[in-house]
Specification:
With about 450 residues, the chain is an alpha/beta fold. It is built from twelve helices and 21 strands.
Length: about 450
């Protein structure tokens, strides 16, 4: 019998922590997990899942307008925010229940309270209990960052946005990344006047330049207001309601809500890391090696708290790798962070995998770029001028496809299959030899010449 209470104690029951817990238990380990908020983590409770449901709801705004050109008479187009909000929360609660059931069915003991590391093999629960474990895995994720400015308590983040009592008529969204642009599209479709404030002159830094330029053009045409090289200096309650924003770089603004989406900060506070001397990076992330191990041999970390790639599927893959390596009978394997696909669920969405055109030119030198700039058939019929753009980046010497980037309806759904081709190092000739599936938008991937 082990001298520890558990073989593995996991702190944090988000996507990565749940995967590591259940797979380790399936391998025969005695596993416990502590979660101080709700099982499911950011993605399920207040992140990608409820956000995607809002994105679905927002798409109906344009679909209902387009329906007339397809013969449908939709006389009343009234949006009711509380109905969508409450249905989204009901779905979140359902998924939370499934996550709990998954842990239970795999015989993982769950503690719904905070856990602190008090030794290399010891944790203390908020209720006062002290437990021991052969290995400790930190999977506490990250949270939205808020700057220290006067009146910041009046602002909201992506944590609170799903619980708004009413839909604002005017909203400022601070940030230029994927979360900011996603919510800009959602609130605009719901009828709010959206102003996106960004301290730089670029949105979606790190994404392919052609895709982000196209999204900016479309967003401006739709009526989203952009304030570049600007920032909020202070927030205060306005005299006649709303919030008064004192701005730097542009005129002051009065709005109903201010949403900050300026990055996420790893959740490391109060975990007891200092007492163990666990190494923390410049961004507040837990430093780990390729096997997810910290500088303390019995303590590991996965997911957003390590700030490698803050994506749910990456955290899940890291949890799987940890469980299989530490408790499975399979050969150890490391997570491959190359060619991780990404998506921005903006309006329209962006999806990409591999190198951007700029990255490929810098790293490979001689490349070929193929593009398809077109209007989706549905947009043509609806009289909507919005154009899609697909780009394929190819290494000239080998003909290998090193990047695919897309903006247009259903781009993320299409890209998932294309990402396999990039990962498999297929060539442009392989795509050229593939028969097109007509009529689809995806066929443009094999028709570029």
């Amino acid at each position: 019998m082990s001298r520890y209470d558990y073989d593995l104690f996991v702190i944090g029951a988000g996507s990565g922590g749940v995967r590591a817990s259940r797979v380790s238990a399936a391998h025969g380990a005695r596993v416990a997990v502590a979660e101080e908020y709700r099982v499911g983590g950011t993605c399920v409770i207040r992140g990608c899942v409820p956000k995607k449901l809002l994105v679905y709801g927002a798409h109906f705004a344009e679909d209902l307008n387009d329906a007339a050109m397809f013969g449908w008479d939709v006389p009343t187009k009234r949006f009711d925010w509380p109905i969508l909000r409450d249905h989204v929360q009901a779905e979140v609660k359902r998924l939370e229940g499934l996550y709990n059931e998954t842990l239970k069915s795999n015989k993982v003991e769950t503690f719904l309270e905070r856990a602190t590391i008090t030794g290399p093999n010891e944790v203390r629960l908020a209720s006062g209990s002290t437990l021991s474990a052969g290995k400790i895995l930190i999977a506490t994720g990250a949270r939205p960052f808020l700057p220290e400015i006067p009146g910041i308590e009046h602002a909201i983040t992506s944590n609170e946005v799903f619980h708004l009592k009413k839909m604002p008529k005017r909203i400022v969204i601070v940030g230029g990344g994927y979360i900011a642009n996603e919510f800009a599209g959602v609130f605009h479709q719901f009828g709010a006047h959206v102003t996106l404030v960004n301290r730089s002159d670029t949105i979606l830094r790190g994404y392919d330049e052609s895709m982000r330029d196209r999204l900016l053009q479309i967003s401006i045409a739709k009526g989203i207001d952009f304030k570049f090289i600007s920032s909020i200096e202070a927030i205060a309650r306005a005299e006649h309601g709303g919030l008064q924003l004192t701005m730097a770089g542009c005129d002051d603004i009065v709005v109903d809500e201010v949403l900050y989406a300026v990055g996420r900060k790893p959740n490391i506070e109060g975990l007891g890391l200092e007492s163990l001397g666990i190494t923390i990076g410049e961004r507040g992330e837990i430093k780990v090696d390729s096997a997810a191990r910290t500088n303390v041999p019995s303590v590991f970390a996965i997911g957003d708290v390590t700030d490698r790639i803050q994506l749910t599927p990456v955290a899940i893959r890291e949890g799987q790798a940890f469980a299989d390596t530490q408790f499975g009978d399979k050969p150890p394997f490391e997570v491959d962070y190359d060619c991780v696909p990404n998506a921005v669920f903006s309006h329209p969405p962006i999806a990409g995998v591999g190198m951007t055109e700029g990255e490929a030119r810098n790293r490979l030198g001689s490349i070929k770029v193929f593009t398809s700039d077109f209007r989706a058939m549905k947009n043509v019929m609806a009289g909507r001028n919005e154009r899609s753009l697909y780009k394929m980046v190819v290494e000239e010497a080998s003909d290998r496809i090193v990047g695919i980037h897309m903006i247009g309806p259903d781009a993320p759904e299409i890209l998932q299959a294309a990402a396999i081709a990039v990962k498999a190092r297929l060539t442009k000739a392989d795509f050229d030899a593939t028969v097109a599936l007509h009529p689809t938008m995806a066929e443009e991937l094999v028709l570029m010449r």
